Amino acid sequence: MNDGTGGLLDTSGPLDTSGPLDTSGLLDRVVRGIGGMDVVGRLAALGGSDFASVMLEVVRRRAARETPASILRRYANDRFVRPGSTSWRSARRAEDILLGCLPAGVDLVTLAPLVPLGTHSALGTVSQHKIVTAIRACEVVADPTNALALEAAVRRASPTQGNPAQSGPAQGRVCLAAIHRVVRAQRFPVGWSAHFGLFAMVTAGRDEGDRRFERSALAGHLRFAVAALRAAGLPLVQVALTPLSDAGERIAAAVAEELAALSAGIVTDHGRTAGRGYYLDVCFKVNVLVDGVPIEIGDGGFTDWTAKLLASKKERLLISGYGLDKLAVLIDGEPTDGEPTAG
């Protein structure tokens, strides 16, 4: 999900947190024609329903100017609306393989296409310019782990919503997964799509002491990743763990030892820069080795999102995401050159 700057040239990972886009020149030119920044400030200060009423009238007038011909021209050239290039059947095979390997107790969620306005920027410190924002105080999902974090927080707030099959310290954990096609607004290289499929999983719970939650949740996500990729006919799997703190060093060491029997390549990557400031304690990448070259399929780590949402430092959350488009290409044995690493 991240390139070297925290961006998402590998779209299985976190959103680009490298800062806002520089639109100051364009904005200055536009606002001069509508009465200055005071107008923008007054619009931004409007309540949700008042703002929506104004913007609905604006877009109604803009839509009224469109014709079938102008719509067709836009459809032919707009990166947000063109179909994806990945074969539907290949993507469906990838989805089915991942779903078939989900551990018991993981609840599959059908996510809405939208989340509340500010979901990505408030939780993951992502520039709002990189999100497709809607009018009715919503934005298009750009990362399903953010949406799953919201659902996990709702369920964590109601103890009866946890997993009833769990007992002991793990009782009340919430384990969710989703398949979702997301849209991201930043500019990608020519030929890459602004929308792509992601498989996401989150495990939410409470601090169990001695990093027990962190160790078991991380081991569970990685067992799933290795099993799924092997089921996809990709046996050469590499897990790269990046500790981000002293506690992360201990968590990573314990999990690496626990998973040694998987016979997957588990390595420690202290040199990773992507995701720092986004993840806490430990993050990881899941790679497939093709001719000895690691191809990133998955990315994940611990975040403080449910701790923020529930205002409790005891809350814990592990997220992970897998690029369905890249996985579909690898399953079909097609060349990976020129393909977006998961989107």
Write the layout of secondary structure elements.
Layout: H1 24-33, H2 37-45, H3 48-64, H4 68-77, H5 88-100, E1 107-108, E2 114-116, H6 119-124, E3 138-140, H7 144-157, E4 174-183, E5 195-206, H8 212-231, E6 237-243, H9 246-258, E7 265-268, E8 280-290, E9 293-303, H10 305-309, E10 315-323, H11 324-331
Parallel strand pairs: 1-4, 6-7
Antiparallel strand pairs: 2-3, 4-5, 5-10, 6-8, 8-9, 9-10
Helix pairs in contact: 5-8, 5-11, 8-9
Rough outline: globular
This entry's quaternary arrangement is: single chain
Can you name the CATH architecture? Answer: 2-Layer Sandwich
| CATH topology (level 3) name | BirA Bifunctional Protein, domain 2
Q: Which radius of gyration do the C-alpha atoms yield? A: 21 Å
Question: In order across it, which strands form the biggest sheet?
Answer: 1-4-5-10-9-8-6-7
Count of distinct structural domains: 1
**CATH class wording:** Alpha Beta
CATH superfamily: Bira Bifunctional Protein, Domain 2
